[in-house]
Amino acid sequence: MRADARRNRQRLLDAALQVYAERGADDASLDEIARRAGVGIGTLYRHFPTRQALLEAVYRDQVEELCATARELAGQTPPGQALERWLRALMAFATTKKNLSTALMSGPDKSEVAMSCSTMVREAAAGLLAEAQRTGQVRGDVDVVDLLRMSHALAIAADMPHSHPDQGERLMSVLLDGLRPQPPGQS
Amino acid sequence: MRADARRNRQRLLDAALQVYAERGADDASLDEIARRAGVGIGTLYRHFPTRQALLEAVYRDQVEELCATARELAGQTPPGQALERWLRALMAFATTKKNLSTALMSGPDKSEVAMSCSTMVREAAAGLLAEAQRTGQVRGDVDVVDLLRMSHALAIAADMPHSHPDQGERLMSVLLDGLRPQPPGQS
Asked: What tens-digit pLDDT sequence spans chain B (187 residues)?
């Protein structure tokens, strides 16, 4: 793909993500996405022949970004901090996913897209978690399933009516403290 | 209400809760509920003239039980332990509520029932939390909204596909540790 085509593609993905968040993925107008990306509707269709193709590409793009973040953070010390930052990114992703997933799951290739993405996220999480546990910064009795479920659940809880405006962050801070190795005899 | 009528009413509530959990509140058969409670269908209708009346009574009964548990636990020391036990009861209630709430929220009196119940739960939680914070067993920077959202989040997480069989309990143990006063300078 030529450099300007790549740029247009990425602009469309970014614009679509915004419009999905504002209007919901089902009601998003493709014209509006193209306009916001600063390209013609023909360019949109050249890159993404169907609504479903665009939706899946946005989802996959978000997953790839989350995995890239994990790789960048893995170079950092201390590993406990790397995991902490990544969990915040994961929670933000869980909110995005919620916006996309109803529409996403109605497509014909739902299981393929969802499965390959969930494997990528799980591997990214597992690497950061293992390093944080190896260096004693996170307790040993949690695993990658716990982390993924928890971040998903916090994103849902943060979205409930009558929550604090910073509800997700408040719960995340309790979770992060709970993930630290606990003093013996406290439980 | 005579003692045997009260007993029948409670049996119907218990049977309905079971059947709702097994079949969903929308598909529950009133005949089956009466049969399981060991009473005739006429007795069911005398106590609960409509499906909605039964559903609301089951919900209210669960909330009252949760509040009674809070009062019993409030007498216990240490207050940290009282709060911990009550949070487990609250998580179980959140699961029940999920089974009931779609049907519950479609009734005409939804706001009245839901509001009076959510006030009761919030007050029960606030009392236990205040005491646990006053005695230094729970950190000061969480409030009753955090607790309620958290328990709801755990109930959601426990119900997601590919979770651990004891997912709710695993996450609860992390969060309970996170609720303890944290050593200074760790965050």
From this structure: 789 999 999 999 999 999 998 888 888 999 999 999 999 999 999 999 999 899 999 999 999 999 999 999 998 778 999 999 999 999 888 877 777 766 666 665 556 777 788 889 999 999 999 999 999 999 999 999 999 988 888 888 888 888 898 988 899 999 999 999 887 765 4
Sequence-distant (≥ 6) Cβ neighbours of residue A96 within 8 angstroms: A17, A21, A62
Chain B residue numbers touching A159 (CB-CB < 8 A): none
Closest residue in B to A161 (Cα) is B149
Integer Cα distance of B94 and A155 in angstroms: 17
Q: Report the gap between the CA of B151 and the closest CA in chain A (Å).
A: 9
Contact list, A85 vs chain B (CB under 8 Å)? none
- Give the other-Cβ count within 10 Å of B111's Cβ: 10
Give the range of the structural domain holding residue A57, as residue numbers without chain letter: 52-179
**Does residue B151 sit in the same domain as residue B111?**
yes
Q: Among the three residues B28, B49, B70, which one is the final residue of a domain in this structure?
A: B49
**Separation in Å, CA B170 to CA A5, A13, B51, B165:** 47, 37, 36, 9
Angstroms from A20 CA to nearest CA on chain B: 24
Which of A83, A145, A149 is the best substitution to test chain B (most B C-beta atoms within 10 A)? A149
Residue B186 lies in a domain: no
- The residues, any chain, with a CB within 8 Å of residue A14's CB and separated by 6 or more, are A37
Q: Are residues A44 and A57 in the same domain?
A: no
Q: pLDDT below 70 — which residues of chain A?
A: 101-111, 185-187
| Chain B residues within 8 angstroms (CB to CB) of chain A | 139, 142, 145-146, 149-150, 152-154, 156-158, 160, 162-164, 167, 170-171, 173-180, 182, 186-187
